[in-house]
Design goal:
The protein has helices spanning 32-37, 54-59. By secondary structure, the protein is an all-alpha fold. Helices cover 19% and strands 0% of the residues. It is elongated and about 65 Å long. It contains two helices and no strands. The termini are far apart.
């Protein structure tokens, strides 16, 4: 809120988001799924056992 509001204890408050001409809307923004799917299937030369050998790849421990 731009200015503090003095409300009585226990007052019910309704919050409503309004678009204004001064603020840009989210139109034209891509959602996260769209951004991630753009990279799907592009990984090359990846290990075939990352779940089994997670500690090896992430922490340098010996492979199982």
């Amino acid at each position: 809120m731009d200015e503090p509001a003095r409300l009585p204890e226990g007052a019910s408050v309704k919050v409503e988001v309004l678009e204004s001409e001064d603020e840009p809307s989210n139109q034209g923004c891509e959602d996260l799924n769209t951004v991630l799917l753009r990279h799907a299937g592009k990984g090359r030369d990846l290990p075939t056992d990352p779940a089994t050998n997670h500690h090896h790849y992430a922490h340098g421990k010996p492979k199982r």
